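> call design_seq(struct)
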């Protein structure tokens, strides 16, 4: 269990303490579930009433929020970001591995930095470079020539193919596959001819990749994930995709080959983005959207169809099939009206 004083937590996140800074804090919790010794947070006004009943020893709040007597406050302009930083300081999640397990298979040509950990039954192939503090979890495979930057962690059963590059301070969750072949084929007389995928996957620093996500290697050039990108579980990133800095991609999203995503984009879950198109910086795409044309202006976009009662959906589906006929009829009426002017 981690233990820090309230003042230590506040100093670490650049916040101010209102109350007893010597309080010992051991964990974070919600306002509703917190007990003494824990710190909660208020980031949404609809939970304001829970401040009056919380048992937390302290709360993270905005500077203008009043806190009941007997509860210390950590005041910061962004309470949710403050909570995230405090949670990191009090995090008790174990490492994916500690030390080099006897069953790990490490090729003699691999280069391991200081403090590297490799879990049971992991395989580190020839000419791999693992920088200082890298952690490779149980059952992982790191292919020939791959480079992994300092303090990056792979959870259990991650597969990284040959010649990939992963930056520093990344986190890759279980079951993810980095560097598998892209879907490259040529057709000759109805028969498929495989195109070798000769590019790499190049991942920047501070990238977080969720469980069971696949990032394909490039066909000739590289698939590139820039610094600070976060990708949720079960996403498919196809060959030669480029994702720029600090973009966030929610679960089950599919990015087709050679699409380019700008900086600071927010892509909702189960979105599909067509290949060979570009999306500019600062775009927000709602979940279940299908993006088939490039987006050149920042802003919010959506195309998903909300669920509806089945009877209503059936009626709307029938009417959708009649749209072209209705359009032609309206054009005919407009033409007749124009001639009659």
């Amino acid at each position: 269990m981690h233990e820090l004083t309230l003042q230590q937590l506040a100093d670490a996140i650049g916040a101010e303490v209102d109350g007893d800074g010597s309080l010992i804090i051991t964990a974070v919790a919600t306002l509703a579930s917190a007990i003494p010794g824990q710190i909660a947070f208020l980031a949404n006004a609809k939970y304001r009433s829970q401040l009056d009943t919380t048992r937390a020893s302290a709360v993270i709040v905005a500077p203008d929020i009043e806190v009941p007597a007997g509860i210390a406050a950590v005041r910061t302009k962004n309470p949710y970001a403050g909570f995230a930083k405090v949670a990191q300081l009090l995090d008790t999640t174990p490492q994916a591995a500690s030390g080099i397990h006897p069953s790990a298979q490490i090729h003699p040509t691999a280069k391991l930095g200081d403090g590297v950990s490799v879990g049971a039954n992991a395989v580190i192939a020839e000419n791999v470079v693992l920088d200082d503090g890298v952690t490779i979890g149980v059952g992982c495979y790191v292919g020939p020539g791959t480079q992994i930057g300092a303090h990056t962690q792979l959870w259990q059963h991650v597969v990284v193919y040959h010649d990939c590059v992963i930056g520093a301070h990344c986190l890759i969750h279980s079951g993810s596959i980095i560097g598998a072949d892209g879907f490259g084929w040529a057709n000759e007389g109805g028969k498929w001819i495989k195109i070798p995928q000769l590019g790499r996957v190049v991942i920047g620093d501070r990238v977080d990749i969720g469980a069971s996500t696949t990032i394909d290697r490039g066909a000739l050039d590289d698939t590139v994930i820039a610094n600070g990108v976060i990708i949720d579980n079960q996403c498919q990133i196809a060959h030669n995709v480029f994702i720029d800095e600090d973009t966030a991609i929610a679960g089950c999203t599919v990015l087709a080959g050679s699409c380019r995503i700008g900086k600071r984009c927010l892509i909702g879950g189960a979105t599909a983005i067509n290949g060979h198109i570009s999306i500019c910086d600062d775009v927000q795409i709602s979940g279940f959207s299908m993006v088939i044309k490039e987006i050149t202006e920042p802003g919010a976009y959506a195309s998903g169809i909300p669920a509806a009662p089945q009877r209503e959906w059936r009626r709307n589906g029938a009417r959708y099939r009649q749209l072209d006929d209705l359009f032609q009829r309206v054009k005919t009426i407009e033409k007749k009206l124009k001639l009659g002017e």
